[in-house]
Amino acid sequence: MSYVGEVRRTAFSSFGTAASGLLIAVVMGSIQFIKAVARRRHLAQLGGFDDRMLRDIGLTRGDVLDASSGPLWQDPTALLVVRAVERRAARRMTMREALREAARQDAAQNAREESRRDGTASHMPVTPRRDDTVSCG
Questions:
Q1: pTM listed for this prediction
Q2: pLDDT tens by residue, 49-81
């Protein structure tokens, strides 16, 4: 009978596995806590920024206050990232919608101009172009 490849387990092997798993969990938890505390310091620096500086990075004073109101062990940057990304996406969506509307108005205006040149009547309603609006102030 060959002993090659045979694994022998001792009575303490399961204890060692449990102890090493517990040690790893404690170390990882400590690292996460230290990172959260460090990020709280960065959050305190963000609190010192004025509103223009916060707006430049896509945040508001309320976002910083909301992030700081969480528990100490919670990472505050996750909320700040979500808020900044949501605002950026909303701003892009608004810009896309405005560009689409401008393209529709330009196409309608071009169609009206062509129909006027051809002498045919246009059945499309007249909508003001962006440069046709008058500013009151």
A1: 0.53
A2: 999 999 888 899 999 999 888 888 788 888 899
- Which tokens is 56 given? 């430049």
Closest C-alpha to 21, from 29, 31, 9: 29
Contacts of 64 (CB under 8 A, 6+ apart): 43, 46, 47, 54, 80
Type of residue at 17: T
Burial (CB < 10 A; 0-12, 13-18, 19+), residue 52, is exposed
What string of DSSP letters covers the chain? ---TT-----TTHHHHHHHHHHHHHHHHHHHHHHHHHHHHHHHHHHHTS-HHHHHHTT--HHHHHHHHTS-TTS-THHHHHHHHHHHHHHHHHHHHHHHHHHHHHHHHHHHHHHHHHHTPPP-SPP---GGG-----
What residue has token string 């010192």? Answer: 48
